[in-house]
Amino acid sequence: MTEHAWRLRGAAVAAAGALLAAGCAPGGGGAPNGGDLQGVQLKVAAKWTGVEQDNFVEVLSGFEEQTGATVEYEPTGEDTGAYLGPKIEAGEPPDVALLPQPGLLEEYAAQDALVPLSGDAAAALEENYTGYWSDLGSVDGEAYGILLKAAHKSIIWYRPEAFDAAGVQPPKTWDDMVGTTASTLSDAGETPFAMCGASGWTLTDWFENVYLSQAGPEKYDRLTAHEIPWTDPSVVDALETMAEVWGEGDYMAGGTDGAVQTDFPTCVTQVYGQQEAAMVYEADFVAASAAEAGATVGETAQAFPFPAVGDAAPVVVGGDIAVAMSENEGTQELLAYLASAEAQTTWAGLGGYLSANSQVQPDAYADDFTRQLSQTVLDAGEDVRYDMSDQVPSQFGATEGRGMWAVLQDFLRDPGDPEATAQDLEDAAQEAY
């Protein structure tokens, strides 16, 4: 794909009112009708904050208007499992939870903490999602979850003004990014990267992109399943590659200490608000945070594909899966609504959102960039891979202070011994598996 195709040409945030029209929501797939849930109160828990939370609450308001139900949003914080665990033990889980990992879904299903999809919710999943995506929310053939919000995690965002001043272009390979783009920016007095190291999941995303491109899809699958150990030379190679950026304190806003202490989305603000760095790596949902920081997506905020480390550039996809945790009235109806093209078209119009729903039309998105992202997933074919850390046991791949998050944060602090880091990853993996 050309650089031009990756330029963000449209506004990332657009009003959704027109998109609520029936003509913009084909394939409703079981969306509720008629205000038959008057007086029903439901709780939905998810990790989203800031603009993402605001947009999701706006989507929920459509369900409230249609059904008469009241939906309360509960933020879980970064560690969804740590939030939900005590709620489940106390017998007070939210009615609907958004799980950021299929691995967490499998754990809760094994604990009988989830209610299978039924009625309109099950029908919406079958109607609106292909087998690959629906399988992500299933355990032993039983459908529990709906991939509500997908995330394209193979993108690096940049500030064109900084690139233009330094005379550099978006790189196509890792070597070009490190050896030319970053070094030239640094020589010109511009810090190349803002790092989101306090949010450990962003560091696993760095690893996954480097590893997928360098080691290839087959090894990626084998490592995910722990069929090869984390001490495998391919893991060490990936860590050594990452150290080419992480080991250069001058390449990161605030140096090494700042990189470890900066969370997401503060790192986005460092690029587009404070202008302390030229680039930030993270997924398509950066668009919403960039806009909040005052950038115009498509003009002052642009992006390029994560550069190829090996033969091909990586395409890593993540996502949040909506599940029922109660049998309360309205729960399945809410899931049916969230799975509908109507609800997801509304969210697509607000920006910072990517749908896996096959009924959501391309013109639902507020910008050309997101349309291009959805196409890159299709173009990657069998080589696209789901986020590795989200597929492994959550205590290894998605728990603050443990597993991959903690080990990679330590590696960001001091990337001088990749072999020791690989051993730490293997030790944590053995404990989790």
Automatic annotation (TrEMBL):
Alphabetized UniProt keyword annotations: Transport
Acidic residues biased stretches: 424-433
Region (Disordered): 414-433
Keyword Transport appears in the UniProt entry: yes
Highest taxon in the source lineage: Bacteria
One Pfam family linked to the record: SBP_bac_1
Similarity comment: Belongs to the bacterial solute-binding protein 1 family.
The name this protein goes by in its record: ABC transporter substrate-binding protein
Organism of derivation: Nocardiopsis suaedae
